[in-house]
Specification:
It contains six helices and three strands, in the order H-H-H-E-H-H-E-E-H. It is mainly α. The N and C termini lie far apart (45 Å).
Length: 159
């Protein structure tokens, strides 16, 4: 399996990982914050939904424009001002799933050379579509692990 095929499969499976990481959690568990400066499962899922929208736009910019500039954003400000503590997790999970599925549909049949298209990220510098795919595939995986750790911490705190 090529690196692109592997990354596309990991990217696609990210929605399943997030669904598994949230399944069966009570509201108390979803809102448990494991420590100062840490996020709850609900906040992580809302962050993922927002990040996925941003990445969906970035994918489309790279595919449609010549070396576009991809603007970074402050995820902590988004979490605060977009009320990640109170948003409905079911809508965030569905938004993440839908946006990722649409992006996967765009990417899955592209020729290999399309993944070498470039953009300039305002914080990361020059990157290819392949780089963005790699970051995005890893992003969901890392946050799924983080959510499972938060859920374990909640269970440990409850005794």
């Amino acid at each position: 399996m090529s690196e692109i095929s592997d990354l596309l499969e990991r990217f696609r499976r990210g929605t399943e990982l997030i669904a598994v990481a949230t399944t069966g959690a009570s509201n108390q568990e979803l809102d448990f914050v494991p420590g100062p400066g840490k996020w709850s499962v609900r906040q992580i899922v809302c962050h993922l939904a927002d990040f996925e929208m941003v990445c969906g736009i970035r994918i489309r910019q790279i595919l449609s424009e010549g070396n576009p500039t991809l603007q970074g954003y402050d995820e902590k400000l988004w979490a605060e001002h977009l009320d990640h503590k109170r948003r409905k997790i079911s809508l965030a999970v569905e938004g993440f799933r839908r946006t990722r599925a649409e992006s996967h549909e765009l990417l899955k049949d592209l020729p290999e050379e399309a993944f070498q298209r470039r953009a300039t990220h305002s914080e990361r510098g020059s990157m290819t579509l392949l780089d963005l795919l790699r970051v995005n595939a890893e992003h969901a995986e890392k946050h799924a692990q983080q959510m499972m750790a938060v859920r374990q911490a909640y269970k440990a705190a409850k005794g």
